[in-house]
Specification:
Shape: globular
Number of strands: 44
Pfam family, one: SBP_bac_5
Structural class: alpha+beta
Largest sheet: 13 strands, mixed
Strand content: 25-35%
Helix content: 10-25%
Radius of gyration: 31 Å
Domain Solute-binding protein family: 385-817
Low-confidence stretches: 4-69, 236-243, 246-252
Number of helices: 22
Keywords: Membrane, Transmembrane, Transmembrane helix
Number of domains: 3
GO molecular function: peptide transmembrane transporter activity
Protein name: Extracellular solute-binding protein, family 5
Mean pLDDT: 88
Length: 940
């Protein structure tokens, strides 16, 4: 499975002074705002008795009267949901309000609106995302008799940007400094409030930039801050004001201010974006309610016994800018989209918690067994496996429904698996090869089965590989060679590939399959970028416990429970929580959302945040769990760079397309990387006294079968600039001037720092080399993975296990015809041979021989891997171990990768988050690569 900072300060300051005049009859910020125009009640509460002071002022006299009344502390508002999507109505019930002829209530919606109602029910539509505090007051004959202001609830509203605006606007974020404001979003009058404004992602549209920030502090005071041209971050300004805000100090991040009067304030941040060519502007807003208390007007958020905020909603902040590539289970092949697929699709089987060898039935009613084969009745009632392990029969679980209400049948499973095979040769690479390798004779991974519209042989092989029977509600897989359940089930448990789609729905939206050789051949084209069915890609029908409620491209996704998920699967409970996942622009935003209480889970934080997380853990507000991974992180070289596309990224970039086809250049670069500084100081094992992972060498990582320790391999590179320079001079490319980017996924500050370190060493090794780190969204990195059209000279990436077997890594990382990286990186025997012929024609026998030898080595490695895979598949472990080790050695000698480290995975969660059955192990399966199984998270 493929995976693909900080606030900046301006050197100049712009000072803005704003004088604010507030007319008292317009102030609507207090807990009893409706009374400010005529009389101002000050409530001093002792138990259930309130002293009610009324002040009356004329031009010449004033008087004060004091009376004692009974003021009730009302129950919190009941709501239809604690989490919603912008533009979606929310129903509220004023729990303690009984309507009568002389009674009314004021409902404070948290967005600046106060609704006067004589009904117990209020309906509110929040048009913008944010965090809204909600409460109500009840009045009898014009007098306040009760308030829920000490039992406020918080509503979280996720973005819902129209598709027509998704690439033109950015979603703002408002966060607090929880260290300085530990009670946020509750404050006291006069208390300094520290607010930080930012954004999830910059606008992705052509010529679009962030233009300015506009703050509204909820009482008519506003502040406009220009954006820095090159960053999108705000310039520094200073604002002074009067009225309810006593001061706003020099501010970018954070803004500091305080409020003189108690009340509920609706703070908003609007980010204005601009098309620099046309001058047209766009805007989008986020809200954050804050409640300002005084001794006479206390505010508090309703706190159940477990003190769990936003019950019923799991909020995740993920430091993965750009979001996923797709939600199509037969197309998406990245670790970001994998998380959504894991929750919205059923597969025949799933992994049993953290185990990589034990499985549970999901869409299957039972796990098939060999023992059921001999009994015909049991074979089709419970599923069975033939004694020679070539036929697997799965009984489909009754009572399953898609999120649109369609029943899930054997036909749907069959249809989805056929679709998986047809998508197996898609570009960029798709996951279909994982199952197809078991079903189609001598199949080469990442290639298409149907080779022409008249390919009847390929058509027959597919149709014979999978069959279904609606009468027995079974699906049968016919393997072309034996495979034990441990092998096959790993393929069937992967939602990337075998996620089940609604066949009827696919046909309704133009993604139906024509079951003929020509139809299969044509359908294969839908797996190529540019030909995707966009409705399957971004708005699919769910077959799993969750479904997609809304999606804002590159910003966020909201998952809500599939209303039809059954209640009788004990180990996959029907979920009650709504899940909001934010893909944020940088780790600081992700951390602040978590630390300030706006997120329950934070993922993919760089290592330098661990001390802060440990501090939160020591305070009892966070929990940190570590567990092993089956993952490899690395930098990879492109041997056939698309110079025209690279030039489109920056016209100044220049590098020969074949620069990294030279094995000595790659070797020199590998020896110019400081591995010990990387793991100890940049990743931070020594710096932070934390195990973030370990150095490794080779494709097969620790924990996989046939792993070879680095001590048993030779030529694993170490940092040696003298040797690196010697290699570069020997390569024949020493005197070539190059300027190119080292691509790093946006938000990955660790590897960006590593790329900076590496670039400096490379320039020292050869002054002709000028490399610069460049952030790029993971989805863009994945989209560039097209053979012959890849502009990335060097890029950082990672491979997470699709299944816990060695060939998942060796095939993906090394194989010429079936690897995820070799094809888009130009690692091709014919390509190396053609380079050899070209340099021979130029009279350069050294380079001609170098590329010829490289071609032979690469071909030998491929053959060794194929033999190793064959022996591993048939259970000949001795032969498999021998051939994998030999292939690993050649892979290292070719220096196709700069192996960085095998990470340790971790969960950073709030202390009230727990695993299913109170076991965090359910969330620690290394195959999931740090992605949540949300139906196994318990909040509370």
């Amino acid at each position: 499975m493929r995976v693909i900072e900080g606030n900046k300060r301006s050197s100049s300051r712009v000072t803005l002074y704003v004088i604010v005049v507030v007319v008292i009859v317009l102030i609507i910020v207090g807990g009893v705002a409706a009374y400010y125009a005529t009389k101002k009640p000050i409530m001093t509460t002792t138990s259930s008795t309130t002293t009610y002071i009324t002040s009356t002022t004329t031009s010449t006299t004033s008087s004060t009267t004091t009376s004692t009344i009974t003021l009730s502390t009302l129950k919190p508002v009941a709501t239809s949901t604690y989490a919603s999507v912008a533009g979606t109505p929310i129903n509220f019930v004023l729990s303690s309000f009984t309507p009568s002829s002389n009674r009314y209530a004021l409902f404070y919606a948290g967005n600046g609106k106060i609704i006067n109602t004589t009904s117990q029910y209020v309906n509110v539509t929040y048009n913008y995302p944010g965090h809204y505090l909600v409460y109500y007051n009840v009045y009898q004959s014009g007098s306040l008799i009760g308030s829920s202001q000490s039992n406020m609830i918080e509503i979280t509203v996720a973005p819902n940007v129209p598709s027509s605006l998704s690439d033109l606007v950015t979603v703002p974020t408002i966060t607090f400094n929880i260290t300085r404001n530990p009670t946020a979003p509750i404050f006291s009058t006069g208390e300094t409030v520290y607010l930080s404004g930012g954004f999830l992602q910059p606008p992705s549209g052509q010529n679009m930039t962030i233009y300015e920030y506009v703050w509204n502090f909820g009482n008519g005071t506003t502040l406009t801050i220009p954006a820095l041209n090159s960053t999108g971050y705000a310039e520094e300004v200073a604002l002074t004001g009067s009225g309810n805000i006593s001061y706003i100090e020099p501010s970018k991040n954070p803004i500091t201010l305080s409020f003189n009067e108690p009340g509920l304030y609706a703070i908003s941040l609007t980010i204005i974006t601009k098309n620099v060519s046309s001058g047209k502007t766009y805007n989008y807003t986020t809200y954050q309610s804050v409640a300002v208390s005084s001794s006479t007007s206390p505010f508090a958020i309703y706190s159940p016994n477990l003190q769990v905020p936003n019950p019923g909603t799991i909020i995740v902040a993920e430091n993965v800018p750009g979001g996923p590539y797709s939600f199509d289970p037969q197309i998406d092949y990245d670790a970001i989209g994998f998380e959504e697929l894991l929750n919205i699709y059923s597969t025949l089987v799933i992994y049993n918690g953290s185990s990589t060898t034990s499985f549970l039935p999901m869409a299957a009613a039972y796990l098939p067994t060999v023992g059921n084969w001999s009994n015909i009745t049991a074979r089709y009632l419970y599923g069975a496996i033939s004694p020679n392990y070539t036929i697997y029969i799965f009984k489909i679980r009754p009572g399953l429904y898609f999120s649109n209400g369609d029943p899930l049948t054997a036909y749907d499973v069959w249809y989805s698996l056929i679709r998986d095979i047809l998508c197996a040769g898609g570009t960029p690479g798709t996951p279909g090869w994982i199952l197809t390798q078991y079903l189609i004779p001598n199949y080469t991974p990442f290639t298409s089965v149907i080779t022409s519209p008249n390919d009847t042989q390929g058509f027959d092989e597919i149709m014979n590989a999978i069959t279904y029977n609606n009468q027995t509600d079974t699906v049968t897989l016919h393997l072309w060679r034996p495979a034990t359940p441990q092998f096959l089930f790993t393929a069937l448990a992967d939602p990337e590939g075998t996620g089940i789609l609604d066949a009827k729905w696919l046909e309704q939206i133009g993604a139906g399959i024509n079951f003929t050789p020509a139809g299969f051949y044509a359908y294969q084209q839908q797996a190529d970028e540019g030909n995707y069915n966009t409705q399957v890609q971004w708005n699919p029908i769910s077959s799993g416990p969750y479904m997609i409620k809304s999606y804002t491209p590159g910003e966020s996704v909201v998952l809500s429970p599939n209303p039809y998920w059954p209640t009788n699967i004990s180990y996959i409970p029907k979920p009650n929580d709504t899940v909001i996942i934010y893909w944020v622009k940088d780790p600081n935003t992700a951390y602040e959302m978590f630390a300030s209480g706006q997120a329950d889970i934070v993922t993919f934080l760089p290592s330098n945040y661990i001390p802060s997380i440990e501090q939160l853990e020591s305070e009892g507000v966070a929990s940190l769990y570590e567990y092993p991974s089956l993952a490899a992180f690395f930098f990879t070289f492109n041997a056939n760079i698309s110079e025209p596309i690279l030039s489109s990224l920056n016209p100044s970039y220049h590098i020969p397309s074949y620069y990294f086809a030279n094995p000595l250049v790659r070797k020199a670069f590998a020896y110019a990387f400081n591995y010990s500084e990387y793991i100890n100081d940049i990743v931070g094992n020594a710096k932070y006294h934390f195990d973030f992972g370990n150095l490794y060498c080779g494709a097969i990582v620790y924990g996989l079968p046939y792993y070879v320790p680095p001590s048993e391999l030779s030529n694993c590179p170490t940092f040696n600039l003298t040797y690196a320079k010697q290699l570069m001079e020997e390569s024949g490319f020493y005197n070539i001037s190059v300027y190119f980017p080292i691509i790093v996924s946006s938000g990955d500050t660790v590897d960006f720092t590593a790329a900076e370190m590496w670039a400096q060493a490379l320039h020292e090794m050869d002054p002709n080399i000028n490399a610069v780190p460049l952030y790029m969204p993971s989805s863009t990195i994945g989209a560039y993975g097209i053979p012959g059209q890849n502009p990335m000279p060097v890029y950082n990436d990672a491979w997470y296990a699709d299944y816990p077997l060695a060939n998942d890594f060796t095939d993906a990382l090394y194989l010429e015809t079936s690897g995820v990286y070799p094809a888009p990186n130009g690692w091709n025997v014919s390509y190396f041979e053609n380079l050899s012929k070209y340099f021979a024609s130029q009279g350069n026998t050294f380079l001609a021989n170098l590329f010829e030898n490289e071609s032979e080595q690469y071909n030998e490695m491929d053959n060794l891997i194929l033999m190793a895979d064959k022996y591993a598949f048939t259970g000949n472990t001795t032969a498999a171990q021998l051939y994998y080790k030999q292939a690993e050695q050649i892979g290292i000698d070719l220096y196709l990768y700069v192996y960085t480290y095998q990470p340790t995975l971790s969960w950073i969660i709030k202390s009230y988050m727990h695993g299913f059955n109170n076991q965090i192990l359910y969330e620690e399966n290394p195959i999931n690569g740090g992605d949540s199984v949300f139906y196994w998270w318990i909040k509370g």
